[in-house]
Fold this sequence. Notes:
Layout (H helix, E strand, L loop, with lengths): L16 H9 L10 H6 L6 H5 L14 H36 L12 E4 L19 E6 L5 E5 L4 E5 L3 E3 L10 E4 L2 E4 L5 H20 L1
Antiparallel strand pairs: 1-2, 1-5, 2-3, 3-4, 6-7
Amino acid sequence: MLGSLPAEKKLNWKDYVGPMAHAYNCTKHETTGYAPFYLMFGRHARLPVDILFGIVNNNGPTDGEQYDDYVIKLLEQLNHAYVTSQNSASEAKARQKHNYDKRTTTNSVLKIGDRVLVQKKAIVGKQKLADQWEEKPYVIVNKHPTLPVYTVENDTHKRTLHRNLLTPCMFLPIEDPIDVNVNQHIIKSRSWKIKKGRELFESWKRKQAHLTDS
């Protein structure tokens, strides 16, 4: 939201944190279906625009209503809001996961025993000069039966990652070969010469940088 400020106001961005946080908290959230303010206090916020348009906001107890009755009604409203928002969030999560999986690369199927590099997710922004992939290769040791999720391993780490975070690198060496048991067959990774592997790795990084620039 702060990024939407005009250039001349971005220098004083801290002055707009409060108003923008208030606007966010009073706005209906796409995922939950409720404004954060309502989920916190069980009522809609009273805004200056309500006075401007003469909108009556019956959030508090009505005339003649007992305090205990109002508390019970408030708790019922909050409980309904919590259940509804949780269901909406679960549906949104499943929908987002489905859309994410659809973008997975399908023309390059990875197999158990393949060597891969893992993308560095800590890098923020374009950063053309930064390495986009971890230097040490991994070996695929398992694949989820229905999802594009793989378990990869090297001599120091074992991780479970989505296909979008992996790229094949069969030309790279593994200094310490890993034995992988799959269906009672042992897949032994070949160890290539380190010097030749480093040269190929540098060549591959230059190609990746060229594709990123283009």
